[in-house]
Amino acid sequence: MPKASKATPNPKAESASAENKGARTAKVKEKISSNGQATNRKIFVLDTSVILYDHSAAQNFQEHDVAIPITVLEELDNFKKGNDIKNFEAREFIRFIDKLSAEHKLQDWLPLNGPTKGKFKVLMNESQTLDATKIFGDKNDHWILNSALQLQQEQPDNHVVLVTKDINLRLKARALNLIAEDYETGKIQDVAGLYTGNDTLEDVPANAINDLYEQGYCESSKVLKSNPADNHYYVLKSFKNSVLAYHNSTEGQLERVDKATAYGIKPRNAEQAFALHALMNPSIKLVSVQGVAGTGKTLLALASALEQRREYKQIYLARPVVPLSNKDIGYLPGDIKSKLNPYMEPLWDNLKYIQNQFSETSKEYQKIRELVDLEKLVITPLAYIRGRSLSNIFFIVDEAQNLTPHEVKTIISRAGENTKIVFTGDIYQIDTPYLDSQSNGLSYLIDRAKNHPLYAHITLLKGERSELANLANELL
């Protein structure tokens, strides 16, 4: 069976130089060659899931050699057609090895581009003493294992490492005494310390809080000892008073944040007020909102989009389609709309909730219906958005934790003039088998984009859906 398209982040093998920033160190001990000399040379065997995650993965192992089993090429052939990111990755990698092997045989070790790079080759399925297909069964994963085992047998003086996003395949490899690792490039190492976008400051000078209440702003130097991140939010407290504020780096000042209402939706806590402020701020073009179920991520994003509907030509609310049990949606009955409805229903639920804040005869209620009928507000799978140029659009991407870093980058790169992009999700609630809290696109965005003047992030902590929903989040 071919690997799922969403492999997780990419592993960088350790460089011989410890000064090479960003390189990941292979977790293998130094071997002693047959002539008694120590060797640090490694050969990394890449699984299909790694290629589908990052077509340039073969270039990310510094001076070490890289190989792919012939079975990987067979699997990539199944992914080369289509408009999804995985199809793009497959095509780009195929073009890469086609260019690399233009005047050479792929069964030979070919030099990779660059003076400090290693070599590359395709491994053929050949017989060896240990046969994974006889132990685990005859499937593509096990032929890939066999290729790595054969290489290990041929290269006893070198480290052979299988690199795959498939946890189960890594376990099978280790059961056969084969070193196996995840592809780690892009992984966030400290998820617990991931940027939250806001802080609480105690013992703030009373005159600073008075300035924020009376004139709406105060000099940052009155409160902050060091330069904060751009568009960072604060709960400022003095002995008697407190105020919500955000750091406007352009003006070099703290500005008061009020609990404004957006299309009938009013924030219920400080973090929601911060999120709504960022969503409504026209100078902030990229927003991410992270939090557990029931914290109001999608609801706030959609309400703010409706409130600003006159500023944009369309509102797009999209989410990645993650098929159940790794089956393609084609197995579901009905036409394409019927197949996708179950995946889009949570988005319609949020829209209905906002609509029900008003009576059926009110202008606000009728306006939402009109926006849907005229396709000014479109709820659609994310796959239908890719490849387009997004201008004058308020674009909400829900369940962004199910995207790879490359997919997040691709979406943002489609933004045209007067477009705002919002990513919402929960990095601990991932539905794809090859992503986790460290490697998903939402975590990657939060870590990389912080402290940019066009970006703001808020982590929502308190569930506001209901007391029963809070019980599930806290106790179960």
UniProtKB/TrEMBL annotation:
Species annotation? Pontibacter ruber
The UniProt entry's sequence similarity note says:
In the N-terminal section; belongs to the PINc/VapC protein family. Belongs to the PhoH family.
What sequence ranges are listed for the domain PIN? Answer: 42-171
The protein in question is named PhoH family protein
Q: Which residue ranges does the record annotate as region Disordered?
A: 1-33
Keywords, A to Z?
Answer: ATP-binding, Nucleotide-binding
